[in-house]
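Section 5: illustrative case.
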């Protein structure tokens, strides 16, 4: 078998064995765990997270959750159509219908679990409107909706004794037949997941964790770019692990850049200024004060994110500036403060009074619309391995995610994954032949700068060559640079004691490669992928699977 590098300990200490293993504690992971805990109170459900439990992309979701629960003024058909239009021809209509139609019941469940969405004095939900939506359907909790949902789910999880949450565990690899000594390739028809190897960051030991069923809810990839709204943990670990295990990954070229991240030079992650601000009347203006969006799209400031991000990018390049402005000066200050207290406070802290000053904003990497390819039940191409949330590619988002559909997708597919796991798990046994992690031949890294500098180089390459606007020359150059960083990092990985920083770098290199290769294969411009060498859409619609 291949010799793997390891951590400080020369022995693997078995600690965990679980019926169901969930990687990630955001809305997708927690919802799945809660559903399974109810279905199978006799089974052990283990959640691993590499940071603290609430440090997830969910926590940073501001705008809200898109759902049709006002049938007098909205309809499933309208939400479906809005999603299909935003996805620019690559959505699976069947999946869109599933998510939109099952969404209200799933949202009602988290309300029953204690999630508080904003209401008016009569008890009617306040609904926002964001880019690409034809109706007001965004439920929100001020401008910290994700944090409120995370809070409620965590409180509910504490009520179930069979849910165990372990913080500060870094998952290294999925365990498959490869680790049992068998040759596994993309063509292997029955690749099976038996659990994971994980680094316990408190003991510095690498543990094997056998599981009958494994679910990846490991979040996004934003840290592959220099500027992102994602927290530091968003390093694409789940997607990279599945690709290394020869699982199917698709549509990675579709990276959504949020049009309006607060511009602060040198600050990362960037502070998100939710699209709901434009839904409430905020206007984008360029350097000379022009409201420029009308010249790009009839929907103006409420066009889908891909359109708005490219428009801002173009305005910045034309003027030679690093940002444009979001003008909220005409908006009612009291209402702004009520709806967006977090944004108001952040702006105030850096000397911006939204009632008098325009907010400097620029696009930042925000959401990965591709990921681990799944079916309508959340099953990946690897047996006994499921994926949901941002790390998955269900077919909902297509070439561009409609605003506030991500939390809804996570709820619907967390439920679907849980239902299928609950039905199948009794037929799945543990694998009792899993070897310990091989720790031979490793030493302490001499210089951390080898890791930190490679990360900076990767982020620069991705930001400069594989951003909002791309071309073939930039993509070739990016791939050449990534190949070099990959070779250097693999050599370091084979000989060094493992650290989260080294493993995250390795995963991000894989993510960068997948984004570039997907972009090279797509000989057209569609949704979030815009290539100046192929400015038109191809009549042949297809997903790019790697």
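Designed sequence:
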């Amino acid at each position: 078998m291949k010799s793997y590098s390891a951590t400080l300990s020369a022995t693997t200490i078995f600690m965990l064995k679980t019926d169901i293993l969930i990687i990630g504690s955001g809305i997708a992971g927690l919802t799945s765990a809660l559903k399974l805990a109810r279905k199978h109170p006799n089974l052990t459900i283990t959640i691993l997270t590499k940071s603290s439990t609430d440090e997830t992309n969910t926590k940073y979701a501001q705008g809200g959750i898109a759902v049709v629960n006002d049938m007098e003024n909205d309809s499933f058909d309208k939400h479906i159509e809005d999603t299909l239009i935003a996805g620019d021809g690559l959505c699976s209509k069947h999946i869109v219908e599933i998510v939109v139609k099952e969404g209200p019941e799933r949202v009602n469940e988290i309300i029953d679990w204690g999630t508080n969405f904003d209401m008016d004095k009569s008890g009617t939900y306040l609904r926002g409107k964001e880019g690409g939506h034809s109706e007001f359907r965004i439920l929100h909790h001020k401008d910290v909706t994700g944090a409120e949902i995370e809070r409620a789910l965590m409180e509910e999880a504490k009520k179930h004794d069979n849910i165990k949450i372990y913080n500060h565990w870094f998952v290294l690899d999925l365990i498959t037949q490869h680790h049992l000594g068998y040759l596994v390739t993309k063509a292997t028809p029955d690749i099976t997941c038996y659990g994971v190897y994980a680094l316990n960051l408190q003991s510095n030991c690498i543990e094997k964790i056998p599981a009958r069923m494994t679910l990846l809810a490991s979040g996004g990839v934003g840290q592959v770019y220099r500027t992102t709204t994602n927290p530091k943990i968003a390093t694409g670990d789940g997607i990279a692990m599945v690709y290394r295990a020869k699982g199917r990954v698709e549509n990675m070229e579709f990276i959504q850049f949020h049009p309006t991240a607060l511009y602060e030079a040198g600050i990362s992650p960037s502070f998100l200024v939710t699209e709901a601000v434009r839904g409430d009347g905020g206007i984008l203006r360029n350097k000379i004060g022009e409201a420029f969006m009308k010249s790009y799209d009839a929907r103006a400031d409420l066009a889908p994110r891909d359109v708005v991000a490219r428009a801002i990018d173009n305005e910045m390049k034309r003027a030679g500036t690093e940002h444009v402005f979001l003008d909220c000066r005409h908006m009612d200050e009291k209402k702004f403060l009520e709806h967006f207290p977090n944004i108001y406070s952040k702006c105030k802290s850096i000397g911006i009074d939204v009632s008098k000053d325009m907010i400097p904003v620029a696009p930042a990497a925000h959401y990965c619309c591709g990921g681990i390819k799944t079916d309508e039940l959340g099953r990946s191409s690897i047996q006994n391995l499921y994926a949901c949330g941002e790390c998955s590619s269900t077919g909902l988002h297509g070439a561009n995610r409609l605003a506030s559909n991500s939390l809804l997708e996570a709820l619907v597919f967390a439920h679907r994954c849980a239902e299928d796991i609950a039905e199948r798990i009794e037929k799945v046994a543990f694998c009792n032949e899993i070897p310990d992690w091989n720790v031979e031949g490793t030493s302490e890294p001499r210089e951390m700068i080898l890791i930190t500098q490679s990360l900076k180089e990767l982020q620069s390459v991705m930001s400069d060559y594989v951003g909002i606007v791309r071309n073939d020359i930039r993509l070739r150059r990016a791939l050449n640079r990534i190949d070099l960083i990959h070779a250097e990092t693999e050599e370091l990985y084979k000989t060094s004691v493992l650290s989260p920083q080294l493993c995250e770098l390795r995963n991000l290199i894989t993510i960068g490669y997948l984004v570039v290769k997907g972009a090279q294969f797509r000989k057209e411009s569609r949704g979030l992928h815009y290539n100046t060498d192929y400015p038109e859409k191809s009549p042949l619609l297809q997903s790019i699977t790697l």
